[in-house]
Each structure stands twice: as C-alpha cells, then as structure tokens.
Automatic annotation (TrEMBL):
Organism: Streptomyces klenkii
Family under the similarity heading: Belongs to the peptidase C56 family.
Taxonomic lineage from the root: Bacteria, Bacillati, Actinomycetota, Actinomycetes, Kitasatosporales
InterPro entries, per the entry: C56_PfpI-like, Class_I_gatase-like, DJ-1/PfpI
Full protein name: DJ-1/PfpI family protein
Domain DJ-1/PfpI: residue ranges: 3-178
Length: 188
C-alpha cells in the first residue's frame, strides 16, 4: 500500500492537516505525519470575525507526529502534503523539511499544498515558472519566487496540486486523489 507523508508542525491549520489525513486514509493510503520532532502537535483554527480586517486564530485539535523530519526517507513515500497555517513559516527553515520537499520536486512526485504552505516552498526555488494557488495574501510571495498566482480552489500544475484555503479542500483533495490514482494507485 503506498504511503503518503504530511509535513507539518505546531500551529498548522487544523482542517488542512486532518481533512487530507482522513481523506487519504479513506482512499486506502497509509499516511504518516512528520514534524520537526515526534511529539503531540497543537493545531490552530483560523476563522473570521465580522469586525476584523484579517482572520483570527484559536486553538484547534492536538495530534501526534508519527516521525521526525530528520528520520524521513522520502523514497519511502509516494507523495507529500504540506498544510498551511503558521507551521510553514518555521518549517521552511528546517533543513530536513527542505531536503524532503526538494526530493519530491526533483523526482516529479505528487505534491499537494494549501494556503500558507506556499511560504515554505518559496525559498526552495521550486515555484519558478509554475502556477499555484495559495491564500491571496501570499500572492507577492509566489510572484517573488517566480511563480504565477492563481486564485482558484484547485490548481494542478504537473505533479503539484494547490488550493487557497480549507474551504477549497473538496476540490483540492479530489484533484490530488485523481493524480495519486494515476501515479501511485492503491492496489487491492
């Protein structure tokens, strides 16, 4: 059975971790959550308040990491998912996260990212010439990285499937699962 890796950490967007985790399990994949260390992670929920100019942050679910990023052999996985939230802002500095993500891009393996996850990709040079969705406030980051920002619920650019935020997840996961069925089908 193919394995899928979710790379995340504390302050990841709750729904952007748990929705793909459960959807991929439902599809028949084994799924591991990798973080800087093996521990109980604390996710957050970003939501909107009518009088605020931006979103607010509240505590979400906690969930255990299965494996430390340093211990991940990317060759053991068919694909990688990168959730958004605030976790990407510190994951992008992690050399093991960088190693893992560059490995998937170099081999044209399926990659799904959503919302602020794009900020973890921009310093890696993997978005140059690519089309990607992200949270609209990340448009300048995408453009500075040489990518083309697309304001859509599911953007497929070769092996990469992206979305703006958690409310796009049905279309995002539908497109990603379609890619996985082609490139890493579940046998059985």
């Amino acid at each position: 059975m193919p394995r899928i890796l979710i790379t995340t950490g504390d302050a990841a967007e709750d729904l952007e971790v748990l929705y793909p985790y459960q959807r991929l399990l439902e599809e028949g994949y084994e799924v591991d959550i990798a973080a800087p260390t093996v521990k109980q992670l604390q996710f957050v929920v970003h939501d909107f308040v009518a009088s605020f100019d931006t979103y607010t942050e509240k505590l979400g679910h906690s969930w255990p990491a299965d494996v430390a990023l340093a211990d991940v052999n990317p060759a053991d996985y068919a694909a990688v998912v990168i959730p958004g939230g605030r976790a990407p802002e510190f994951l992008r500095l992690d050399p093991d996260f960088q190693r893992i993500i560059k490995w998937f891009f170099a081999r044209n393996k399926p990659i799904a990212h959503i919302c602020h996850a794009v900020t973890a990709l921009t310093p890696l040079g993997v978005l140059k010439g690519r089309r990607t969705a992200a949270w609209p406030a990340c448009r300048p980051d995408v453009q500075l990285a040489g990518g083309t920002f697309v304001d859509a619920e599911a953007v497929v650019d070769g092996n990469m499937v992206s979305a703006r935020a958690w409310n796009d997840q049905p279309a995002w996961m539908r497109a990603f699962v379609e890619l996985l069925r082609e490139q890493a089908p579940v046998k059985g």
